[in-house]
TrEMBL record:
Family stated for the protein in its record: Belongs to the LysR transcriptional regulatory family.
Protein name listed in UniProt: LysR family transcriptional regulator
Domain (HTH lysR-type) ranges: 1-63
UniProt-recorded Gene Ontology molecular function terms: DNA-binding transcription factor activity; transcription cis-regulatory region binding
Transmembrane feature ranges: none
PROSITE patterns: HTH_LYSR
Record's keyword terms, sorted: DNA-binding, Transcription, Transcription regulation
Entries under Pfam families matching the protein: HTH_1 (PF00126), LysR_substrate (PF03466)
Lineage: Bacteria, Pseudomonadati, Pseudomonadota, Gammaproteobacteria, Lysobacterales
Length: 296
């Protein structure tokens, strides 16, 4: 069904005739009349009884088919107005939804200030944060379940638009009472003789730690796998072994004296890039644009 023709028909009913409908729509009366006749031809139904105005509804006499179609037209155009109002509200950030995904360190340390500011500035936006490792966030963004993802590991997925967001320093740490902490720069062989704590596969922290160990020729005597940077930091403080962790994670336990920082051997910097992930070819919704502006 041609919605333009339906709009002409509804205007004739609502404005009590062809002339007033033409004035309201800023078209000629002949265009309105021609449009309504074309709609009747397409439907193969008479919508208006042009023979008499006795008993006319709103100044226009409708056939039974015309009455039924007009009810549908009113409902349809009411939905159209509601849709336009909803879209305008979303553009104006009065309502909507923003779904963010982040790997654990980003979610726990980098995003909370921006989340708080965004929520205060746009209370009508439903805000959610999904926390997962890099692989899980990347897959959720690619599947369309998240509007944006922030991760700490390398991602290679043609479905995604990937941008370097910022760089994050890492720190090699041990327990405060570890004699190793007194050495200026432990040798690779000394570090190989120790137990190392690592994140689970798919974690960005694990990717960087493993790449650094391999580059420096360090083969850990033993590894322990723990699925949380904070839990690793606490285990290291208890003497469980060595770990490479984000500097923001170990800042407080270092300041409190529960951990000691070690000078990493070699020339390879302990730093990792953080990435922003979006679905390729998908325009950014206004809510996402506003949130990203808070991160700059």
């Amino acid at each position: 069904m041609n919605l333009h023709l339906l709009r002409l028909f509804a205007a004739v009913v609502e404005h009590c005739g062809f002339s007033r409908a033409a004035d309201a729509l800023f078209v000629t009366q002949s265009a309105v009349s021609k449009g309504v006749r074309e709609l009747e031809r397409q439907l193969d139904l008479a919508l208006l009884d042009r023979g008499s105005t006795d008993g006319a509804r709103r100044g226009v006499r409708l056939t039974d088919a015309g009455e039924a179609l007009y009810r549908h037209a009113r409902a349809l155009f009411a939905m159209e107005r509601a849709a336009l109002e909803d879209v305008r509200d979303r553009v104006g950030l009065h309502r909507g939804r923003l779904r963010i995904g982040a790997s654990t360190t980003v979610a726990g340390y980098w995003l909370p200030p921006a989340l708080a500011r965004f929520s205060a500035a746009h209370p009508g936006i439903e805000l959610s944060l999904q926390v997962d490792n890099t692989a899980g966030v990347a897959e959720a963004v690619a599947a369309g379940g998240l509007d944006v993802g922030f991760v700490e590991g390398a991602v290679d997925d043609a479905r995604l638009r990937i941008a370097r967001w910022r760089d994050e320093p890492l720190q090699l740490v041990t327990a405060a009472g570890d004699p190793l902490a007194e050495r200026r720069r432990p040798a690779a062989s000394t570090l190989s003789a120790r137990t190392w704590l690592l994140r689970e596969p798919g974690s960005g922290t694990r990717q960087v730690a493993q790449a650094w160990l391999e580059a420096e020729g360090i083969i850990p005597r033993r590894t322990l796998e723990i699925g949380s940077n904070d839990a690793i930091a606490r285990a290291v403080a208890e003497g469980a072994g060595l770990a490479i962790l984000p500097a923001v994670v170990v800042a407080d336990p270092l300041a409190a004296g529960r951990l000691r920082a070690l000078s990493a051997p070699g020339k390879r910097a302990l730093v990792r890039p953080l990435f922003r992930l979006e679905l390729a070819q998908r325009p950014r919704p206004p809510a996402l644009e506003a949130f990203l502006a808070l991160l700059d």
